[in-house]
Specification:
The protein has 622 residues and is of the alpha/beta class. It has 21 helices and 20 strands. The chain has a nine-stranded mixed β-sheet, sandwiched between helices. The longest helix has 18 residues, at 240-257. It binds adenosine-5'-diphosphate-glucose. Residues 149-151, 153-154, 298-299, 353, 386, 437-439, 466-468, 497-499, 502, 519-524, 527, 542 line the site of adenosine-5'-diphosphate-glucose.
Amino acid sequence: MAEVTPPAAQAVATEAVETAAVAADVTAAAPSSDAPPAAGAVTAANLELTPPVIDDHAAPLVIDEPPAPAADSLPEINSPKSKSQQKSKPTFELAAEPEPEQFFIPPEPVSLETPPEPAAQPPLHFHAQRPSLFIVHITPEMAPVAKVGGLADVVFGLSRELAIRGNHVEVILPKYDTLRYDHIFEMHRVYDDLWVPWYEGAVHCTVFFGFVHGRKCFFIEPHSQDNFFNRGSVYGFNDDVLRYAFFSRAAIEFLWKAGKHPDIIHCHDWQTALVPVFLYEFYQRLGMMHPRICLTIHNFKHQGVTGAELLRASGLHQPERFFDYNRMRDNHHPNALNLLKAGIVYSNFITTVSPRHAFEAKEQGQGFGLEPTLHTHQTKYGGVVNGIDYDVWNPEVDLQIPARYGVSNIDAKYDNKRALRQRFMLADNEKPIVAFIGRLDPQKGLELVRHAIFYSLEHGAQFVLLGASPDHAINNDFWGLKRMLNDSPDCHVEIGFDDDLAHLIYAGSDMMLVPSRFEPCGLTQLIALRYGTIPVVRSIGGLADTVYDKDHSDRPLHERNGYRFDNYDALGLESALGRAIACYYEYPDHFRHLIENAMRADFSWNRPGEDYLNIYDFIRDR
Ligand SMILES: Nc1ncnc2c1ncn2[C@@H]1O[C@H](COP(=O)(O)OP(=O)(O)O[C@H]2O[C@H](CO)[C@@H](O)[C@H](O)[C@H]2O)[C@@H](O)[C@H]1O
């Protein structure tokens, strides 16, 4: 394989070549869109089509550019240089106020909390009357049936938001043995004969359908000795990369066999990042010309880095093609493939879960090695802050807490505080309760969590923690802490995953600590805000995009909703937590205003739903 120049350098030098090379690549290989799909399973044999000629020294791969929008919908561009630049991406991170005929998205006012990049995008105009889209989410997790982290909540919330806006939305998941079947309704087989190409043969799968709180979900069950999804937990196995490569192949094979041609396939994280590779390498040639792919990266840390075995297993039988730096070769390990990188290269649009983190990942070393890839593909990359589902996380209607409350009867919150204390046998005193809920992962700033426990206890606050880790060493560490603090009347450490308890802690606590090392978005602070539990967070990623410091923000007073600190160290943490505790004691009326601001803020899926629809509209095949 020829060594190639890093794409960042190439991109500038070969811009003109790029468009021609890509056009040649895609059109030479693909049959006309009218060609009917070939019958039978996709096998290695019928995929041995003549590969399009790729010059290893050519410009970075850009896949299947959607046709240019109609002239009247083009944004104004100052000095267009190339075709890809002419199609400026949508400014989806900005609020859209509906107007009679169209949506106008104004540029965001410059504030200290706005990261210095990206440069302001020209406003786009969107038609208010969008056509209804067919959207399929292919995902390893969805709350509450298969939840490990925040990705699960995002798929649950976003899929409903898209559906209530009149789109047809389906979700495809693995059929794990650990699924919460009590949340799946009318589960039944819908496809008994799905054969998914795998190594030299094919694996027989059954597809089930069921409703998860109204969401239309398909569950893929493979029948093979690998026992891919009957392992007792979602992740944590040596063959995780192969398990999800198989799932990705199975999901798109299912779409093809079932004759489904969604407008948009929305993938999530490295686990499903091969879907666009399969689409553009195999299935487009089999007639799936219509779907476009949006990939959301919830966490850059996990990328699915693996060896050549993946290619043999998944039918990507051209190592010289896929080990190309411009396709799947890992940026740092020349003998490894990187699934998340492949997803970035092959998708039509890539999002991460806040604009601030989009910037940090591309420019500030938080892309875990993918920074050059993000630069190369920056015209199809951006950030959308997550929402939370106010049907699930809303103290006004939450049946999982003892007392319901809203901004007009905040006092009822304190019934929940009493209930939380009873549950954890904490002293009933005048102290505030500081809480932490989250995966016990180094990402979450575990040293600072530990420090915050002792700091809170020494400064007149109680502390409760709910968390778990798949890493035994970390769990043991927190078990040690739990034993050490067991007799304290002001502290409780709960190790495990417990959704009911999480609701009680959000409702019963006064402050929610999120001292993460990095945080693409963060849902805990968003949920806490809704429950009037004041976030104390580090100023990074989505935390900085959603929490505005009571004392040091340039936001209007009525928008300030928490406390922030910059430096990842004990002093940084104390500077914010100390102010929060002091305010609770010394200025209770100020603290009360913060609670009201927090509860009034809108972090529902309303705005991010609009943002994603703008993106879909931008990339879809018209
Ligand atoms: N032990 C426990 N018991 C009960 N509930 C628990 C729990 N531990 C965590 N949870 C819940 O799980 C969710 C976790 O949300 P996070 O934003 O912390 O997600 P996570 O870091 O996993 O995901 C990644 O994806 C999400 C979604 O995009 C991003 O917000 C985030 O920054 C990124 O790291 C919250 O709803 C929380 O209440």
